[in-house]
Write a structure and sequence with these properties.
heterodimer; A: mainly beta; B: seven-stranded mixed beta sheet
């Protein structure tokens, strides 16, 4: 079945760039998403990319998609302490129109001052 | 303001008791979803509804029930058959061709 994998933890220093990686298995995915979750809160949509795109940039966020390798990454430039959170990668279930998402386990980003 | 409201924020369940989690949206979205989140895990889909008066089981529906009598509302009942209900429950909704947007969650614990 479909699966999404992420590394569990990333630690960076304030001001550095962070790169969070994700791999997925469903080759029919139409959209791939990045969500951010702060402690005790719901998920906040950060950005998403259509599967026929290679890259999308939105202010400090850059998403890269390698469809051949089924690899997605999220780069956060000039990482701030407020970026400390859990980041979830998710893919849409490409074979249906239900809008169902498959989520990775989440990557905890720790930003040290 | 438009958004998704989940209530209560914290909920406690006694043994053998059913509890209902509320999810309301005023975004005019047709589709709504319930997820369960356990520590260190991603979100797992419990139930979803694409239209009023219709809903489908997700990956972990056992021990849960839902209804969709109104477009704005998609309540989730955690029944006594759910033996490990302690988790963080998230509700989401989605407009046509749009990403899912989430509420702030309900944390359910066992007394």
């Amino acid at each position: 079945g479909e699966d999404v994998e992420q590394s569990l933890f990333l630690s960076v220093r304030e001001g550095d760039s962070s790169v969070i990686n994700c791999t997925y298995t469903d080759s029919s995915s139409t959209y791939l998403y990045w969500y951010k979750q702060e402690p005790g809160a719901g998920l906040q949509l950060l950005t998403y990319i259509f599967s026929n795109m290679d890259m999308k940039q939105d202010q400090r966020l850059t998403v890269l998609l390698n469809k051949k390798d089924k690899h997605l990454s999220l780069r956060i430039a000039d990482t701030q302490t407020g970026d400390s959170a859990i980041y979830f990668c998710a893919e849409s279930h490409g074979s249906s129109n239900t809008g169902k998402l498959i989520f990775g386990q989440g990557t905890t980003l720790q930003v040290k001052p | 303001d438009g958004g998704i409201t989940q209530s209560p924020k914290y909920l406690f369940r006694k043994e053998g008791q059913n509890v209902t989690l509320s999810c309301e949206q005023n975004l005019n979205h047709d589709a709504m979803y319930w997820y369960r989140q356990d520590p260190g895990q991603g979100l797992r889909l419990i139930y979803y509804s694409q239209i009023v008066n219709d809903f489908q089981k997700g990956d972990i529906a056992e021990g849960y029930s839902v209804s969709r009598e109104k477009k704005e509302s998609f309540p989730l009942t955690v029944t006594s058959a759910q033996k490990n209900p302690t988790a963080f429950y998230l509700c989401a909704s989605r407009g046509e061709g749009q990403p899912q947007h989430f509420g702030d969650g309900t944390r359910l614990s066992i007394l």
